[in-house]
Amino acid sequence: MTSLASNSSRSDVERLARRRAGAKMGWYIHAFVYVVVNLGLVTISVANGRTWAMYPLMGWGLGLLIHGAIVWFVAPGGGFYDRLVERERRALDAGDRG
């Protein structure tokens, strides 16, 4: 029985690890596309003597920031999420069920 439980636990860990790695890879791809596209937009903007490129930089940058915050801090496996789960475990172990 312990072998079955151990295999189940390992597959859960593997699944979580793959999900976390996929989420982080998605953020890296998002950041790369952000940089490449916005370099092009800034180049076009400056070539025309305008400053309109700052608007997509700020808007998309906010989206990238939110995406990063979710991937790195809030999602399961993120530091903030792990700390919250651990705090709840300690509270439950201490007998506080509320």
Structure explained in plain terms:
With 98 residues, the protein is an all-alpha fold. Helices cover 84% and strands 0% of the residues. Helix 1 (2-47) runs antiparallel to helix 2. The longest helix is centred in the N-terminal third of the chain and has 46 residues, at 2-47. The chain is elongated. The protein starts with a helix and ends in a 5-residue tail after the last helix.
Distance between the termini: 34 Å
Any low-confidence stretches, pLDDT <50, length ≥5? none
User: What series of H and E elements makes up the topology?
Assistant: HHH
Query: Which class best fits the helix and strand makeup?
Result: mainly alpha
Q: What is the 3D shape? A: elongated
Oligomer: single chain
Q: Please give the share of residues in helix.
A: over 70%
CA gyration radius, whole angstroms: 21 Å
Mean pLDDT reading: 84
How many individual β-strands? 0
Describe the biggest sheet? none
Number of helices: 3
Portion in beta strands? under 5%
